[in-house]
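Structure representation.

___
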Amino acid sequence: MSDHEPISKAFQNFTRFHAPHIHLNSPFGNGWFGNKAEGFARFFGTPIFLIGQTAIVCVWIAINLAGLTQFDPYPFILLNLAFSLQAAYAAPLILLAQTRQADRDKAHLEADAHHREAIAQVSEERQTLMKEQTDLLVIMLRQNTELTETIKIISEKLARLTTDVHEKLILGEPVPPN
């Protein structure tokens, strides 16, 4: 058994409350389209996308204003159509991603709530068990104290009897048999 095995087992144990909700991990489905759609939706909010899109728009406008080509003259209708097309696809993908993320968050929240409830129940059971054990310990301590007092009384009586026997033996008096 290596040093890392207990850690991995603990991690597997940690995620056991999330297992019923594992199907929610892929918000766009588990197929090829789902993977591509999720990657695309995630890419929309990155600095790389924003900088890249800004650069493309600047180059587009610069080429058309400089007169190097006239594929999209001044009101830039083609550029507006490209933005509209992008928005038409981006908005639903982003909304879908948000909805699925909310579903995953809710499922994870429920799993965490079950986990916390299980911890609370175990804690209550441990507290009850500790109280029972403490009560037993107090009873045992009382019994031990009573036994110690009884042993002390018996020892004192034995000491007195022994002293009486020794005194009678020294004085030559007869010792009564028990």
Q: What stands out?
A: The longest helix spans residues 77-171.
